[in-house]
Amino acid sequence: MEYTEALREILGKNVIFDTVEKIPYMTDASAFNGKEPIAVALPETVDEVKQLLAFCNSNKIFVVPRGGGTSLTGASIPLENFIVLSMAKFNRILSISPADRYVVAEPGLRLDELNDKLSEINFFYPPDPASSMAATVGGSISTNAGGLRASMYGTTKEWVLGLEVVLPDGSSMITGGRVLKRSAGYDLTALFVGAEGTLGIITKAFLKIWPKPEATGRILAYYDSIEKIGLAIRNIKASGITPLIAEFLDRITMDSLNIAKGMSFPAAASYMLILDVASTDLSIAGDLEKTANMLRDLNPIEISITRDPDEMARIYEARKGAYSSLLKVRKSSSQRVIIGDVVVPASELPAALKEIAGKAEELGIMVALFGHISDGNIHANIFAEPGNAESMSKEEEFQKHLGKVALEHGGSVSAEHGIGIEKKDLLLDQEKFTSSDVAIDIMRKIKQAFDPNGIMNRGKIFD
Amino acid sequence: MTESLLEQLENEVGNCINCGFCETVCPTLDPSGFSLWKGARGRVIMGRTLLEDKKKGIPVPVLSDSFYSCLDCHACLFVCPAGVNAGKVSQLSREIITTTSDRKNENPYARMIVEVTARYGNPLGVKARSAAWSEGLQFDRNAEYLLYTGNMFQLMPYTKNLNSARKTMGNAMSNFMASRVANHPSMIKMLSRMRDKEMEQKNFGTLRNIVKLLRLSGISFSYLGEKEPYPGTFIYDLGYIDKFKKYAMYVYSVLKESGAKKIITVDPHTYDLLKNTFPKYVDNFDLEIFYYLDLIKMPALQKGEEKIVYHEPCHFVLRDPRYSKPFQILSSTANTVLAKRSGSKSRCCGGPDELTFPDLSEKASQIRYEELKSTGADIIVTACPICNVNLSKENRTMEIADYLASKLPA
Q1: In this structure, are residues A205 and A163 in contact, taking their beta carbons and an 8 Å threshold?
Q2: How confident is the model at residue A46, as a pLDDT?
């Protein structure tokens, strides 16, 4: 093979050429299938990353960085003439400073492993995408991942203090660092958050950490309509309580969790709300009761409160696995579930959901709905047949409509999954809708400044 | 190959959404250098490739290392939101490969083990020494219980030295030799001199301690000695299911001939195989299966100062998660802790790959050893001969029978 010798020289044994061994790198958690990469690089040092990028830049070989391979939009799959750059071996925590509120971590570290370690000192890193068991520091920065706790703590962009990155020409730089404040020109760190690996390779991340809430409790409430949940959340937030998490699940999702996890739900419930309250040991009981009373005002079918850690962990894990569990209720083994991800202002969510459900009914497709109701993030999960043209055409029409609904309600076509391959057209729709065509031009110019040869994850975000 | 095998594989891989949760707990991903095909999600993807090629009727590429390197611990199943078991994908894929006599995908060591077991009733052809541990011991006749060692403790000294020889030979020569032995099983006799004698003495001592503990508990039992057959664990695990069915019938008939209806096993692999797998393949299987600790009655002992960490065998916490007897007994005897990864999140010692992927096995065992050591325990206690060998690194690892025997009053 043309590049074998040179890549071996740079990476030694840390490179895969075998066709069969490369197969798993052609997929991620999205519905897209990639092309066979030229090679899979698994560097162990920053110097190897630098040499590799310089080599690829000189030879016009495209590079897709890979973290946990959990992208839902095809951001981490290789296309034609690509090398996969897996950061799996960069998986260490380099330092933790609770007094200064930061941790320095490598990009291949999985988020749950980071939080396991931080929990030993009673701290945590708040971004918790549902994929946090497999998702990595680098991957979650590159998609500006959100998650359940975004309700209270915001998304990844709020928690990245700085980065060490290797640029396509093999040079490196540090943006930001170990401090919570910085006002020194353009915020280059922010450019890499959500860049999906199109600007460079993150080799180190300086992340803000926070003390864990002293006490938490969970309310489970079931309703016959999403409007009631929307109204309840609005009342709760208006009263000054910010939920730690506030998740809604529709009936299809509840049924899938029943099959996959053996969880039971009231038969009459159309929607479920999972709401966590964070407080102090002294106040938690009162805060939970006050919140539950506001939920009771909207006539729930059933409502319960738990502070049992095992029970809370069980529900939390089930919610995080909801997307995968949906396969349990598909109509045939050839069906796939394709997850949609849009966001609207939280108070617009009930109206937006109604329109989304209406479109699913009009198209005659099965769609399961769940999401983060406190920040207006809707995941519409479409059951589609990849081998069936009509089914895929409906899926595409539905996704398009989903984006339209989000925009019309003042939201965005992507909340926390990024653009990848899947949403390139929707991104253009969004810029048109907001009369911001120039924004894409500016993004392209930024890309050009960092990556003049266009080797970094080419074909993702925009063409 | 039966259609049902492909259907079963399709059911399993079809439920996977590629979320990757499974690979975070897979004990072979890290030791493989993070090469995805030797991780749980990679195995499901390779299973999908195998399935698609089989359905299309096109030749399957050489992909079986993905499945043979699976340790069958089933840790992946416990984190999968859709209930997919990458271990089952590996098991089914191996079975498809062996059923179709896909020689280029068959692992040479797997084939060697199966052929030698069929010829000698022992995977390494060393049945003759399988009863040497019991020299001088008298066993009961026509007792209610039969002690069935399954030969696992006796085999470990040979596998250790076999692996040393493999490292010296290199992979290509080693695989060539395994193929030669598979074709000419009598060549295995070269192995009979290759045992680690120190380990053999240690393991013989463990078996004798098991006997001691059982006798002190008032259990009367017989033993088949050299007639005792190997249970067929490898044949089953490596996917030779048709051969396993026949072999299991043979083992059952030998056990039945003893007249005992209650079988005492001494390792978790044999226990799980006889208790949970044999009944699926042997019609009217009517033997009652025990792990020896089920029958032990330890005297009340004062807990000492030492801290021990118990490494749970996969077959007790992941394959048969209801079995917690060893931990109960240890906890009542000593200050016992578990590693951070324990219970349904336990990490395999890497042992089942010892013969087929020795380098990977060694790295996996080192990772688990460090986890256990990081608890600050003075002693690592195992309840499986394979775990014991793999985790014996700094003279701080003891088999549970040896530990309990050391606590008995003089």
Answers
A1: yes
A2: 98
